[in-house]
Amino acid sequence: MDLQKLITKPKKAARPEKTDDALVTVGKSVQRVDGWEKITGAAKYTDDTEFGPGLLYAALVESPHAHAKIISIDTSAAEKARGVVKVVTGRNFKHKFGLYMNDRYIFANDVVRFVGEQVAAVVATDPKAAMRAAELVKVEYQELPAVLDAVKAFEKDSPLVHPDLKSYTHVPWFFPKPGTNIAHWRKIRKGDLAGGFNKADLVLEDTYQVPRYAHCAIETHSAIGLYDASRRLTMWTSSQSPFTQRHVFAETLKAFGLSHKDVRVISTYIGGGFGGKAGVTMEIIAAALAIAVPGRPVKLLWSRAQEFYNTYQRLGCTAKIKMGVTKAGKITALDFKLHWDAGAYVEYGANVVNAAGLSASGPYKVDNLSIDSMCTYTNLPPCGAYRGFGYSEFLFGLESHITRMATELGIDPVKFRKLNAIQEGDTLPYGAHMNPTGIRQAIEKVEKEIRWGVKEKSKDPKKVIGKAQVCFWKSPAMPPNASSSAFLKFNEDGSLNILVSGMDMGQGLLTVMAQIASEVLSVPVTKIRVETPDTDRNPYEWQTVGSHVTWGCGNAVKRAALEARERIFDLVQRVHCLDKSTLYVENECVKCRTKPDFALRFSDFVINGIQADDYTFKGGPIMGSGVFMPEFASAISDPETGQGGHPNVHYTTGSAGIILEIDKETGKMKIKKVALAVDCGKAINPDLVKGQIVGGLLQGFATVLYEDMRYNEKGRLLNPNFSDYKIPTVMDMPDEVVPIIIEVAQPDGPYGARGVGEHTMIPCAPLIANAVADALGVRIKCMPVTKEKVALAVKAAKKN
Amino acid sequence: MPITTEFEYVKPKDMDEALHVFSLYREKARALAGGTDLIVHLKENLARPEVVVDVKALEELAGLDLKGGVLHIGARVTFSELIASAVIKGKFPVLWEASLTVASTGVRNRATLAGNICSAVPSADSAPALALYDAEVLTLSVKGARRIPIADWFTGPKKTALLPEEIVTAVELKLPGKKHGGCYMKLARYDGEDLAQGGIAALAFPDNTYRVAFCALGPKPSRCPAVEAVLNGAKLGEKLLVKAGEALLAEISPISDIRSSKEYRLHMAQVMLGRCLETAVARLFGKGPKYGNGNIC
Fold first, then answer.
1. What backbone torsions phi and psi does residue B296 show, to the nearest 5 degrees?
2. Distance from B79 to chain A by nearest Cα, in Å?
3. Does domain A46-144+215-309 bear CATH number 1.10.760.10?
4. Is B277:B283 a contact under the CB 8 Å cutoff?
5. For residues B268-286, average pLDDT
6. Domains in chain B, please, with CATH?
7. Using one digit for the tens of pLDDT, what is the confidence trace for A263-293?
8. What is the pLDDT at residue B177?
9. In chain A, what residues touch B258 (CB-CB under 8 Å)?
10. CB contact under 8 A, A128 and B2
11. What sign does the CA torsion over A655, A687, A501, A7 have?
12. Residue A2's pLDDT is what?
């Protein structure tokens, strides 16, 4: 038995876990705890926070060049402008920062590396004054050759984006190549690749392209900083990662005498994250500006254009795949080279590359495997987390390739996937073993739902119908010691306040946390409040990313609730002399198995204690705390093979299928039906899981059908707006969406739950590409698969 | 996002006052009605007028009525008002269908038809319909009134025949006088709101005559006389549509841009022409999809 299994093996507990049938709240689609607040408009977002008339506003001076040396900055005219309080440049801030690699400055120091990079900021009494003064800052540049393509950046004579890469500090699981543009090269070498190709009856090699994408959260980034007279820095941010931000602020601004205890991050509700509000982007600027104008709050609010070009974007990817398969449909070898365009700074994006590199085999058993996942610097905006964290990108090529190979061999593509699908205990690309998984059930349920194998004809003679089914998997990409914690406090009336620092960004985390505590303590969800984080009050959470919080934060909340319950039992045992092992909670009361009439209401004692026979009181406020860290994880492995560590905590798998109607002349595509089955271990709130499935699919289909970031030859983003970067509307919903929940329990998850948030969007791109090929016989290998590409490919195919 | 460019804002209470401001400031004055283009351009510093003249209080710009076969649409009339009008839906269905494809409900609640043709982008959704109904643009200045046929109105991308001291007061359309079916086919990237990547509008009459116009397939929206010449007098059929499609290629000159390639626009212009004419004819005989349905390609 391997280490993870030993650790996650259910311990023999004094109280057996409830069976699924006995669960009261978990597994039920209870109403969201934040529902009323959000529907009535009571919910506060960062920009809603009031600071009074003393609030200052910041505007940025941004680089017009993709790569240039800063010769001089003249701020004198701006400083004299009406309403200006301060002009700040890189001169004032010399420390580099970064989440996984220290490669960024708060303001460009000597060199700008992408169009739109912040060079200076003006702080003024109103936003207009700040913007007008920013136009008065004169910056002299000397243009440098820029590199805008990851494959070109990999070439020997390419301009270097970071000539000093050698001196940069980073996490121990990154392997930069100084003197090149490679910031990190994740290698996986497993089995005998050459031998695997020798055994293959068919070897196919091809390249697939995925452009960059933007998250497009409806709420743009916003941050307010205040460095007050007590020398503490308070930041109000729209963030998925308040504690990570606190850490980065404290580390980066150490020179100003700040330590972690002095930095407080308050995160309100956020209007969409999708990974874009993970880590630290523009918030560091607001923090620095607060230091620059002590005593007054400073607000930095991103415009929609800035939201596009100066937050993280999703990485672009050029994927070169060579795969060997036997006539029987067994994958014998996979050689996968991923060239990632990670942009000018990769402090977060390099971990996307790492995560994809560890898992690019997809949810298949591949014994002979080579993966090269290369994080490449380019002079385009920095990339980072985006729902799917690299998996959507490699899956487009991989799942396109698998369908092509199966079809060429005359094997049913779904049968092919069943044959190669990973199973519990199989060896993963990095050598550890696969967790329990319901991928086979997922494939079978989807197959049935889309009537796989049954050819369908459109009623409209201009249209054809294609079908496709693919598989997906994803693991949370997190440092091995990423942890979660929770506080839980009873109130006089038996209600609960739970403090966590996981963020609710629409996915329903707060509701799920309430459900878990409710299940343990028998307090109804309506009597539980779970608040958004304030790092002074709420306990630590690493970040709300990677679809890990239901699992990680959920484990912490469960432990906190169990601890509170233990305290209750201890107290009742002490005062009422009832054996602890006979006590249980039900309907907000403590009850006793051996004494049926005994029922002590929580509201009678959880704050004020229980009165003993001598009229004294015993007990006091009931509280609980819980901590969770995946103690079996390790990121350290052989850099040349990737073997030896246990970087990923678990994989969530699933399958999705579509019925796609395509207009042969116009290329217009309509999704008649999509079914997605995901093994989330245990759906703590099935409606919320279904919401993830519907939302994820809509977001995923948009990236394949029309979204696309376009840059000109000078590295300028051409469509930083919704006129030309299209995100889906309600009109663009598939005709029918069938969400399917599979529940093969995760042994170390709360009630068996594992992550589900990101997974639902990642199968979309190959679904469309494969359905187009099925219907029309044309293969689009470059995302997005727009109607224009489809129509022109059909036209070209006719000519030939 | 705040507007940082500085300008004077005036809201004239009558037409004389408004015209006086325009005669004084000429191209440095910009009229504000719906503001759905102007305000965006001000925010992005693409427009830097000295005076913004709010014309919303001018009663002369109101009014939407059909008299003696002429439809009068005041410059203040919004797309939502057009969509809500039974006259537009019943008598000028192609304008109604085109109005429904303009942006989104929120934008249509403010955006005016006059503003759409004053912005004069090649993709103006209302322009092909105006061309089909032989529209005239009514202008006014201190020097007097003018009537400009829609064919002469657009002079290039974002350029019109409007003189610096003039404002548009109304657009007038002529009722075709005989029964007709019509259609506006629009090429968009998805089903949500989008700017036309190409648009074809057509009217079909019982005597086998046709009117055809386009937008977003050349520097300015226009009627297609050569296509109409090929079609007139004949019943639609595959061969005729091929010939009409060939004639269309000589009348359009699409470009490649971020929204679409020239190649796809050329391909889709022909596809849309065929579908648009077929739909118009079907509707003439009470068949085909209802107006407002199935016209986004």
1. -100, 120
2. 19
3. no
4. no
5. 98
6. 8-53 (3.30.43), 60-174 (3.30.465.10), 181-284 (3.30.390.50)
7. 999 999 999 999 999 999 999 999 999 999 9
8. 86
9. 710, 718-719, 724
10. yes
11. negative
12. 59
Query: CA A103, CA A377: separation in Å to the nearest integer?
Result: 11
Cβ contact, residue pair B268, A131, below 8 Å: no
Mean pLDDT, rounded, of chain B: 97
Is beta strand A484-490 parallel, antiparallel or unpaired with respect to A623-628?
antiparallel
Mean pLDDT of A662-666: 98
Whether the predicted pLDDT of B140 surpasses 60: yes
The DSSP symbol for A525 reads G
CB A224 within 8 A of CB A236: yes
Cβ <8 Å between A705 and B261:
no
Going edge to edge, which strands form the sheet with A583-586?
Answer: A583-586, A589-592, A599-601
DSSP assignment letter at A430: T
CA-to-CA distance for A99 and A281, rounded, in angstroms?
A: 10
Amino acid at A612: A
Residues on chain B touching A662 (C-beta within 8 angstroms): none
- Every domain of chain A with CATH number 3.30.365.10 lies at 14-43+483-628, 316-421+450-478+635-799
CATH architecture of A14-43+483-628: 2-Layer Sandwich (3.30)
pLDDT value at residue A621: 98
For B56-66, what is each residue's pLDDT tens digit? Answer: 999 999 999 99
Are A531 and A268 in contact, with CB atoms under 8 Å apart?
Answer: no
Closest by alpha carbon to A266, among A503, A78, A459? A503
Which residues in chain A are classed under CATH 3.90.1170.50? 46-144+215-309
Task: Provide the CB-side half-sphere exposure for A97 (13 A, CA).
Answer: 28
Which CATH number applies to A316-421+450-478+635-799: 2.60.40.420, 3.40.1160.10, 3.30.365.10, 3.30.230.10?
3.30.365.10
Give one DSSP letter per residue of A208-243, joined into a string: EEE--B----SSPPEEEEEE-TTS-EEEEE--S-HH
Closest to A4 (Cα-Cα) out of A330, A435, A318, A315: A435
pTM of the model: 0.96
pLDDT tens for residues A345-400?
999 999 999 999 999 999 999 999 999 999 999 999 999 999 999 999 999 999 99
ipTM of the complex: 0.96
Amino acid B77 reads V
- pLDDT tier at A19, thresholds 50, 70, 90: confident
Burial of A281 (0-12, 13-18, 19+ CB in 10 A): buried
Of the candidate ranges A323-327, A333-337, A796-800, the one whose mean pLDDT is the lowest: A796-800
**What angle do the packed helices B262-284 and A787-799 form, to 10 degrees?**
100
Q: How far apart are CA A243 and CA A535, in angstroms?
A: 6
pLDDT score of B129 more than 50: yes
Report the Cα B208 to chain-centroid distance in Å.
25
- Furthest-apart CA atoms within chain B: distance in Å: 59
- The arithmetic mean of pLDDT across residues A137-151, rounded, is 98
pLDDT at A763 > cutoff 70: yes
**What is residue A16's predicted lDDT score, i.e. its pLDDT?**
55
Instruction: Report phi then psi at A187, rounded to 5.
Output: -110, 140
CA–CA min distance B82, chain A (Å): 22
Residues 116-135 of A with CB under 8 A from B: 127-128, 131-132, 135
- With contacts defined as CB-CB under 8 Å, which chain B residues touch A702? 190
pLDDT number for residue A13: 46
The mean pLDDT of chain A is 96
